Amino acid sequence: QVQLVESGGGLVQAGGSLRLSCAASGRTFRTYVMGWFRQAPGKEREFVASIACRSGGDTDYADSVKGRFTISTDNAKSTVYLQMNSLKPQDTAVYYCAALQSYRGSYSLPASYDYWGQGTQVTVSS
């Protein structure tokens, strides 16, 4: 079992920055991919970014955040980060980190992930 705890959310003005952290514990050695998703009220959970924990650390980003957000990991600390720059009001959502340990077809689909954190609120004011 893997436990994930997000932190770093908060209130920021448009154009500002936040850095989210996700600390993983438990059987983390079996994790292949870590992802960030977000969910706004009344909307489905959507993919934000992912990073491979093996095989070179390949990354992927949603088009809506590419060039503004950066995902990274510190394997020694079993932590994944999401640096968010140039934030926009439409980035407002609860942000979740997730761990994939068994491939299910796509790294951008929530159903592919095995473990989830409780989420951290990000609010961007105009």
Q: Rg, please?
A: 14 Å
How would a textbook summarize the main sheet?
Answer: 7 strands, mixed
Which class of secondary structure composition applies to the elements?
A: mainly beta
Distance between the termini: 40 Å
Q: Catalogue the unreliable spans.
A: none
Rounded mean pLDDT score: 94
Proportion of helical residues: under 10%
Strand content: over 45%
How many beta-strand elements? 11
N to C succession of SSEs: EEEEEEEEEEE
Helix count, DSSP H or I runs of 4 or more residues: 0
Q: Overall 3D geometry?
A: globular
Topology record:
Layout (H helix, E strand, L loop, with lengths): L1 E6 L2 E4 L4 E9 L6 E7 L6 E7 L6 E3 L7 E6 L4 E6 L8 E8 L14 E2 L3 E6 L1
Parallel strand pairs: 2-11
Antiparallel strand pairs: 1-3, 3-8, 4-5, 4-9, 5-6, 7-8, 9-10, 9-11
Plain-language structure description:
The chain is mainly beta. It has no helices and eleven strands. It has strands spanning 2-7, 10-13, 18-26, 33-39, 46-52, 59-61, 69-74, 79-84, 93-100, 115-116, 120-125. The strands form two sheets. Strands 2, 4, 5, 6, 9, 10 and 11 form a seven-stranded mixed sheet that branches. It is globular, with a radius of gyration of 14 Å. It starts with a strand and ends with a strand. The model has no long low-confidence stretch (mean pLDDT 94).
What key phrases describe this protein's structure?
single chain, four-stranded antiparallel β-sheet, mainly beta, 126 residues, seven-stranded mixed β-sheet
